Amino acid sequence: MSFVTEITSEAQFKTEILDTPGTLQVIEVFQSWCGPCKAVQSTFKRLYFDLNDRPLKFYSIAAERLPMMREYVGKCIPVFLFYKDGKQLEVVVGVQAPALNRLVMEFSAVKAAAGA
């Protein structure tokens, strides 16, 4: 998926996720032996193109490649992490397309300016 950026180092995680304000980052944590989940690709691709006016980015991380993701090593199902403004907002375990869709819509919504 070309709209998904793979994170391969903790320095990259810091730059792309923790130090990027105002953008919703959805991270799929997967196992190297099985790769990113193909079942969720169409959902994320649709969201990416349908919501192209929103600050939204998709990432993937192989759990065993980053020490900070060790808690997810050995899981047989993908884990999805939602970050915004350097803070983790939500964790979804497994491919739950309705929940993933709802959270992307909710967390990527641009709030109207006060008094507008």
UniProtKB/TrEMBL annotation:
The keyword Transcription does not apply. Transmembrane segments: none annotated. Residues 1-115 form the Thioredoxin domain. It comes from Volvox carteri f. nagariensis. InterPro entries: Thioredoxin-like_sf, Thioredoxin_CS, Thioredoxin_domain, TXND_domain-containing. It holds the Pfam family Thioredoxin. The keyword NAD does not apply. This is Flagellar outer dynein arm light chain 5, thioredoxin-like protein. Keywords: Cell projection, Cilium, Flagellum.
